[in-house]
Amino acid sequence: MRELDKFFYASSIAVIGASNDEKKAGYQIIRNLVELGYVGEVYPVNPKEDEIFGIKCYASLKDIDAPVDLILVSVPAPAVPGIFLDAKERGDVQAAVILASGFSETRIPERVELEEAVIKIAKEANIRVMGPNCVGIMNTENRLDTTFAAGIDKIPGSMSLVSQSGSLGATIAAFSVNQAVPVGFAKWAHVGNQSDIDVLDVIKYYKDDEKTKSIAMYMEGIDNAREFIEVAKDIAAEKAIVVLKVGRSELGSGAAASHTGSLVGADELYEAAFEQAGVLRVDTIEELLDTAKAISMQPLPQGNRIAVLTEAGGPGIISVDEIGMGDVAVLPKFSPETLKRLRELLPPMAIIDHTDGYVDMSAAADERHHAEALKIVLEDENVDGIIHLSVLPTFLNPKLMGEMSAEAIKQYDKPVTVCYLAGEFVQEGREALENAGIPTFEMPDRAAKAMINMVRRRQMLDRIGKTETGDEQAKDRQKIDAIIEKAQEQKVNLTEVESRQILAEYDIDFGQYALATSIEDAALKAEAIGYPLVLKIMSPDIIHKSDAGGVIVNVKNVEELKIAYEQVMKNAREYSADARINGVLLTPMLPEGTEMIIGAIRDAQFGPCVMVGFGGIFVEVLKDVNFKMAPVSRVEARDMVEKLKLFPVLDGIRGRAKLDVDAVVEVIMRISRLIVENEDIKEIDVNPIRVYEQGISALDARVII
């Protein structure tokens, strides 16, 4: 027996707090178990009742003279410890759902202690607990429902749900079965306060559940985000995880000391981590259910070339727009043979391939036209899947069209999503398709999004497992530790020179540079480097050197050098009279190039993360950046770069030369290892990095401890 079988396959349930009062949760729980046909034994517990729904009611848990696997606790919070003492005394209770609220979610110290006391007893009695402040679980296989949500039909499906909101989770379950063609579900769980059983436990259970083909989740946020992502990545290799994560507007701290820190927000990290783990993030309840349904029913496309086969222009254009507005799927280029066959088959007024991969069969197309056109397009090697749409004219038979189309689609191992419009008239056609394992949708945009998300799923699977992250361990660990320990002892920030020294231990090359502590020293070292030069003030107390007037560029000779040296010193003292000045950094002026930023941050939830974007002085204006949890593989690092909005600038847009993306990828990997392997480092900025046709040059660096 697996751990959570104690909940989902309990053979007997005691409902403590059962009631004949329709206004109480204990009434609805018993009603659900009885009226929805739970196959096990139900024991109501309430000292004030003799029977409920015709079932004998017991005065206490101790009075039940039969085995009890699962207890549902719906009594006021202060009474819950006593219930668990009774369960401990019995010795046969294996699982508990605490529906009662008034525990740690209140953040009242004594209520937090109350929850801890309950869990202590439960652990002593070897009872697993879901909740408190939760409505528990549902299992359509045995029609088990521990919730007080009214009237959710137990229609079996291949999707299982887990929710951090009881009410919204119940709404999703209800919505899944209350559709023209019900989606249904296998199992459902609400985790409440997660005092014992948490989201990770549930999704691990779903991974090994034979009835579960895909996992849908409503998420508000989790404390152990990195662990969740690591578990999800393992599961997503076998079963799709689709998440509706709310809280997109939550912002990261704007007071961070680096560009990386000021750009990162919680939602950006969730978005990146989901992508990295192979978790499909969606925006609406409809998309959550549609995506889980499509992935459960259809083979994944082998590529991203998705044709649109429609009988009406409007729905077809809507679907084409969904493809065109994203960067996941593309319309295919039909083969000449496909075009020839379609023209021979379809009515003369059909619009064939005026836009690549798009066919409007016209309202004159009959049932045979639809089925045969599906075959022709599915046979094209340039096509990976089809979005099929029809506003059925009254002279067509929806059921016959659904049956003929289903027969055609089943001959090919390629996905098809279908939208028949609309209402009762097309119901039998949709049912014919659904019964054959082909998903149908209410609206064309939903059919298109489901297909696009299947493409995303395929792309994620192709990336999962490619985890080679390089061997960028530090050349001299002791040198890094010494630099950090010295700064910690003196309670100062690292200067750019010290930051460069740390980064150099991971083979991030800054070329020639020198620290000068006087005008004479600067003149001597400038001769060795060569003009023109850049001068930068070096102070642990001046983080943003440009803001302090501490940077002067294009110094062409020794006379200009002396003037520049005195000027940056003067500017620094005026900016901060108490600032400690270590000297002036001399670096050569480098050729112009495309400027990028590569950085890293140690996040409280996600741990070490790495970032890449288009940088320089406009980094916080452009905000064209991507994050991933570190360490990243070469595939992941390249994906970060290629998904930047301005990537075409690197890739040779409009005849420009292609730039050295491989060099950028290498630095991303090295910095990701640096942040992972050095726990005292909080943030890293290498900004700007100039990218050339061959190689890159790092111009500035900041490491924050």
Q: Based on helices, strands and strand pairing, what is the structural class? A: alpha/beta
Largest sheet: 7 strands, mixed
Indicate the CATH topology of the largest domain. Rossmann fold
Radius of gyration, in Å, reads 32 Å
Give the distance, in angstroms, between the N- and C-terminal Cα atoms.
Answer: 48 Å
Could you give a quick summary of the protein structure above?
This protein is an alpha/beta fold. Helices cover 38% and strands 20% of the residues.
General description of the model:
The chain has 3 domains: 208 residues, NAD(P)-binding Rossmann-like Domain (Rossmann fold), CATH 3.40.50.720; 165 residues, Succinyl-CoA synthetase domains (Rossmann fold), CATH 3.40.50.261; 169 residues, 2-Layer Sandwich (D-amino Acid Aminotransferase, Chain A, domain 1). Helices cover 38% and strands 20% of the residues. It has 24 helices and 29 strands. About 2% of the residues have low confidence.
Which features would summarize this protein structure in a list?
24 helices; Rossmann fold; 705 residues; D-amino Acid Aminotransferase, Chain A, domain 1; alpha/beta
List the helices and strands and how they pair.
Elements: H1 5-8, E1 12-16, H2 25-35, E2 41-45, E3 51-52, E4 55-56, E5 70-73, H3 80-90, E6 95-98, H4 109-124, E7 128-130, E8 136-139, E9 144-145, E10 159-163, H5 166-177, E11 187-190, H6 199-207, E12 214-219, H7 225-236, E13 240-245, H8 259-263, H9 266-277, E14 279-282, H10 285-297, E15 306-310, H11 313-324, H12 336-345, E16 351-352, E17 358-360, H13 367-378, E18 385-391, H14 398-409, E19 416-421, H15 427-435, H16 444-463, H17 477-490, H18 496-504, E20 514-516, H19 519-529, E21 533-538, E22 551-555, H20 558-575, E23 583-588, E24 594-603, E25 607-614, H21 619-622, E26 625-629, H22 634-642, H23 647-650, H24 661-677, E27 683-691, E28 696-698, E29 701-704
Parallel strand pairs: 1-2, 1-5, 5-6, 6-7, 10-11, 10-12, 12-13, 13-14, 15-17, 15-18, 18-19
Antiparallel strand pairs: 3-4, 8-9, 8-11, 16-17, 20-23, 21-22, 21-23, 24-25, 24-27, 25-26, 27-28, 27-29
